[in-house]
């Protein structure tokens, strides 16, 4: 109800000004009153009954109190009279645009209003979004799109499609220049889904937000398949299966607070560095518990998030795409108050192998961090790429190359710590020294080789194993020998392929020093229009 009070207050304040100035602002007052009625108590109850907030209520949660300034509040829809449905004469044309402060920093936003023609996008609606996109790009500030729309406004025909194309074009022009965040808080159907897919991060609210190119009715008509909105394009589907959604929350308020939290890690644009945050509770520089995390048994899993939480400032790790491709962990953390992008293999899921989904997930994150001057840390424990017919036939070669390309192309400070396994092509891909890694460290538990000991001895000692009376025992002995003499970090250290084998307990201290040394890193790339990443 704060939104309704806010509008009434605007009317009352302007009425007082009229009395003081002694001027006739009847038209001015009438418009404000009409705008207030447009956002009536009934409209609010309609949204609230669905577990959703009004567009302006969302804006008030997103922005610092009292800082949001609305633009183009009184524009009206294009006049269409073709006999194909009634156009509602409303102010704003179903979308709120404006600017304000988020944690004290400038940001721009638009929020579609489902209570006005289902939040549908027509020419004027699109023009407003394009206007705020242009302003955000010009001012070098993040833009947040809150999407709650039935899609293109059918009555306006090609004009609505042209509007979408204009929005997409600005998304692309802003990519890598300012952070772009999409917040799905209702339906996003048809062409409406492509703007979020171009932006940097997509947030969804469980049970009330949906994304799909073609809805359940079309699926039923074309394929004769019955599917619900939730099963086709709900938040859980896109967070776990498709990977389209990076973050999901259970209600709209927490979704918007999640956006605020994410922005606290990011610079406003590609010419700035991320904001520094003072540490309220210092983390220990020497953490002996890090020595105990990696098990003695090389085949036993552990949770790499324990490593992350011991290394980074307390409570600072903010995971991205937590539910998708869980064999790799990505997210932001703060190291001595400074934002770092983290890419970590997760041994407790698929043994930490790289597959199609994890490669794409990590590659896109690396590209984002590189675009916005966020240093990268790779925590490596990877036995290789996931084998199998499905992976090969679905293009693991091409998709795995995306991560390789992203790391090799990145010019921000890049550090790798090999925690345990580092085998084969996956060793190369995970920010290896010869791929351009700036500092590459290893724990004493690291195993660096062309392949794992068991696989290696099966090839190297095929004849001996076939002739042995106890091949299992012999294989175990040979594997132990291979691990001790070949797959250990000291050989790589002596040959210069890693910079140092370090005591796990000093990892945080070592990283703080290394990233400080890299603060003025400067790379001159070859002159070109752009590279051709294996999309």
Q: What's this model, at a glance?
A:
The chain is of the alpha/beta class and 535 residues long. Helices cover 40% and strands 16% of the residues. The protein contains 21 helices and 17 strands.
Question: What does this molecule look like?
Answer:
The protein has 535 residues and is of the alpha/beta class. Helices cover 40% and strands 16% of the residues. The chain contains 21 helices and 17 strands. Strands 10, 11, 12, 13, 14, 15, 16 and 17 form an eight-stranded mixed sheet that branches. Strand 4, helix 6 (158-174) and strand 5 form a beta-alpha-beta unit. Helix 13 (356-371) packs parallel to helix 15. The longest helix is centred in the N-terminal third of the chain and has 20 residues, at 2-21. The radius of gyration is 27 Å and the shape is elongated.
Topology:
Elements: H1 2-21, H2 26-38, H3 41-48, H4 55-62, E1 69-71, E2 95-102, E3 105-112, H5 123-139, E4 143-147, H6 158-174, E5 180-184, E6 187-189, H7 194-198, E7 201-205, E8 210-212, H8 216-223, H9 229-233, H10 235-242, E9 247-249, H11 252-263, H12 304-311, E10 318-320, E11 328-335, E12 338-345, H13 356-371, E13 376-382, H14 389-393, H15 396-409, E14 414-423, H16 424-429, E15 439-442, E16 447-449, H17 453-460, H18 462-467, H19 471-485, H20 489-494, E17 500-501, H21 507-517
Parallel strand pairs: 3-4, 4-5, 5-7, 6-8, 7-9, 12-13, 13-14, 14-15, 14-16, 15-17
Antiparallel strand pairs: 1-2, 2-3, 10-11, 11-12
Helix pairs in contact: 1-2, 5-6, 13-15, 17-19
């Amino acid at each position: 109800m704060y939104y309704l009070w806010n509008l009434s207050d605007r009317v009352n304040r302007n009425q007082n000004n009229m009395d003081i100035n002694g001027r006739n602002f009847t038209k001015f007052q009438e418009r404000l009153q009409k705008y207030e009625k447009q956002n009536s108590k009934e409209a609010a109850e309609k949204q609230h009954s669905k577990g959703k907030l009004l567009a302006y209520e969302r804006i008030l949660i997103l922005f610092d109190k009292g800082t949001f300034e609305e633009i183009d509040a009184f524009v009206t829809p294009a006049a269409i009279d073709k006999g194909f449905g009634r156009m509602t004469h409303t102010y704003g044309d179903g979308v709120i645009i404006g600017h304000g402060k988020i944690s004290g920093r400038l940001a721009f936003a638009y929020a579609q209003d489902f209570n006005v023609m289902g939040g549908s996008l027509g020419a004027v609606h699109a023009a407003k979004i394009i206007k705020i996109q242009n302003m955000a790009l010009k001012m070098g500030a993040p833009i947040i799109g809150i999407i709650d729309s039935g899609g293109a406004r059918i009555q306006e025909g090609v004009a609505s499609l042209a509007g979408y194309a204009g929005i997409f074009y600005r998304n692309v022009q802003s990519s890598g220049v300012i952070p772009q965040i999409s917040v799905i808080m209702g339906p996003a159907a048809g062409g409406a889904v492509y703007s979020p897919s171009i932006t940097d991060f997509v947030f969804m609210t469980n049970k009330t937000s949906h994304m799909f190119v073609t809805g359940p009715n079309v699926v039923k008509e074309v394929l004769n398949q019955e599917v619900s909105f939730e099963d086709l394009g709900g938040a859980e589907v896109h967070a776990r299966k498709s990977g389209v959604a990076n973050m999901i929350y259970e209600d709209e308020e927490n979704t918007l607070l999640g956006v605020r939290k994410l922005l606290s890690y990011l610079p406003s644009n590609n010419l700035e560095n991320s904001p520094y945050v003072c540490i309220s509770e210092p983390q220990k520089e020497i953490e002996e518990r890090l020595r105990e995390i990696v098990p003695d048994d090389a085949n036993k899993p552990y949770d790499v998030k324990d490593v992350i939480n011991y290394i980074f400032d307390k409570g600072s790790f903010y995971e991205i795409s937590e539910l998708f491709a869980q064999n790799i962990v990505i997210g932001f953390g703060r190291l001595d108050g400074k934002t770092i992008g983290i890419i970590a293999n997760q041994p407790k899921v698929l043994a930490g192998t790289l597959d199609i989904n994890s490669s794409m997930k990590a590659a896109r994150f690396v590209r984002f961090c590189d675009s916005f001057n966020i240093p990268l840390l790779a925590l490596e424990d990877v036995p290789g790429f996931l084998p199998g017919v499905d992976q090969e036939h679905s293009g693991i070669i091409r998709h795995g190359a995306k991560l390789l390309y992203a790391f090799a192309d990145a010019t921000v400070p890049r550090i790798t710590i090999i925690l345990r396994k580092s085998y084969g092509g996956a060793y190369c891909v995970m920010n290896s020294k010869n791929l351009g890694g700036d500092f590459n460290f290893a724990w004493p538990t690291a195993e660096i080789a062309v392949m794992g000991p068991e696989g290696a001895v099966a090839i190297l000692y095929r004849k001996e194993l076939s002739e042995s009376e106890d091949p299992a025992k012999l294989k175990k002995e040979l594997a132990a020998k291979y691990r001790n003499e070949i797959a250990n970090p000291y050989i790589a250290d002596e040959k210069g392929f890693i910079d140092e084998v370090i005591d796990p307990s000093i990892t945080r201290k070592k990283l703080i020093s290394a990233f400080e040394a890299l603060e003025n890193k400067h790379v001159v790339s070859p002159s070109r229009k752009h590279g051709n990443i294996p999309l």
